[in-house]
Specification:
Blueprint lengths: L7 E5 L2 E5 L12 E5 L5 E5 L3 H7 L34
Antiparallel strand pairs: 1-2, 3-4
């Protein structure tokens, strides 16, 4: 695991703010993306680094990821010849 820092949450108006350590390299006004995971943990990064973060996910899935397929994704048959809003006769 990498380095660890402590942050402190505090009330700011009707919101909860998080005071981040300067060592993390955030600047005043930086836009930050925060993602909550199903286990309750969080990941965050500068919005300007979003592409780099996304690209770093390549190859990070476990070998068994989706080994059993996508699960139940069957769909009902569609009547493709019926008119829709997009192709209705005027």
């Amino acid at each position: 695991m990498g380095k660890e820092w402590k942050a402190k949450a505090f009330k700011s108006g009707n919101s909860i703010a998080l005071r981040m350590p300067k060592a993390l390299g955030f600047q005043d006004g930086d836009e930050v993306r925060v993602v909550q995971h199903s286990d309750g943990s969080f990941s965050f990064w500068k919005e300007s680094d979003a592409k780099k973060v996304f690209m770093s996910l390549y190859g990070s899935m476990s070998a068994g990821f989706m080994a059993e397929g996508r699960g139940d994704i069957e769909q009902d048959d569609r009547a493709w010849d019926l008119p829709t809003k997009d192709n209705e006769a005027a």
